[in-house]
Design brief:
heterodimer, A: 110 residues, mainly alpha, elongated, B: 170 residues, 2 domains, three-stranded antiparallel beta sheet, 64% helix, transmembrane (chain B), cell membrane (chain B), transmembrane helix (chain B), monoatomic cation transmembrane transporter activity (chain B)
Chain lengths: 110, 170
């Protein structure tokens, strides 16, 4: 039984590492900030989530399993919040930029 | 006035219960003094924060008490969506073919909690990211955009998650 769990955990670790590597490549390949955030979320959520699943499979006792489940729940709440804050900041600063440039155009037309 | 007080009392009780359960899970200790201490601390924190934790305008218990089986179903659906869209983003990274667009659509979920969780689930899956949530209006950045039509985009991004969420909360 333990060996099956270890093999499944190994598969999850490999998947997580592969996603992390591709996310890192994407971070440098994409040009605009939103696409970079998407590649970053590949690292930040899929890879970490795979690791957490692997750790859940490897956990030795019921108490640590319960704690891993709490960790996963908190990760589900906190991971999107972080990237959402960054995305929202870009969105609002672009908004302000647009408004400023349109105001400049109006100034020139006057 | 009386119904408002009852409602406040219910919200206070639910907050205390939630905090107490979290305390038990985190301390993993069923000793008498640990439980007593946790209970009084939860009472104290709940009395200070229940009006933020469960706002008064959420006028239905189903707005924040989930149905357990639907919650598990939503969780499984979300993990499946996470891996499916991760593979799509991996393909996009390797080939370099992306079509990033900003799309707008509406959600028919009614409670604040369900809407926030929908926005978080959209951000959680790679390839889509919530920029803004105004009442029922979502602004989403979509990496592999196939349509900017509001209904079709909403269909592609959120409909399955929204159905599962609509069964969990109201």
């Amino acid at each position: 039984m333990m060996i099956v769990r270890e093999i499944l955990a190994l598969i999850a670790f490999v998947i997580g590492t592969a996603f992390g590597l591709v996310g890192m490549v994407g971070l440098f390949r994409f040009k605009d900030p939103y696409s970079r955030l998407h590649a970053g979320s590949l690292c930040g959520t899929t890879a970490v989530f795979s690791y957490l699943i692997a750790l859940l499979l490897l956990s030795p006792s019921v108490a640590s399993t319960l704690r891993m489940i709490i960790l996963i729940v908190f990760f589900l709440i906190s991971a999107p919040t972080g990237s959402s804050i960054v995305a929202r900041f870009i969105w609002e600063s672009e908004d302000a930029e647009r408004q400023r440039s349109s105001m400049n155009r109006e100034d020139k037309s006057l | 006035m009386n119904s408002r007080r009852t409602w406040a009392l219910i919200r206070f009780g639910l907050t205390t219960l939630f905090l107490f359960v979290v305390w038990i899970l985190f301390s993993a200790d069923a000793g008498f003094f640990s439980l007593l201490f946790g209970f009084f601390i939860s009472l104290l924190s709940a009395s200070l924060t229940y009006h933020i934790f469960l706002p008064e305008h959420e006028a239905n218990l189903r707005f924040f008490i989930p149905r357990p089986f639907s919650l598990i179903r939503f969780f499984i659906l979300m993990v499946a969506a996470l891996y499916a869209s991760s593979f799509q983003v991996v393909k996009a990274v390797i080939t370099g073919n992306t079509n990033p667009r900003i799309v707008h659509f509406r959600t028919r979920l009614r409670s604040d909690l369900a809407r926030t969780i929908l926005a978080n689930a959209i951000t959680f899956t790679p390839g889509t990211m919530t920029l803004d949530l105004n009442d029922d209006h979502l602004t989403v950045h979509w990496l592999l955009c196939s349509t900017t039509h509001a209904k079709a985009a909403g269909e592609a991004i959120k409909t399955r998650l929204e159905h599962a969420l609509g069964r969990t909360w109201l």
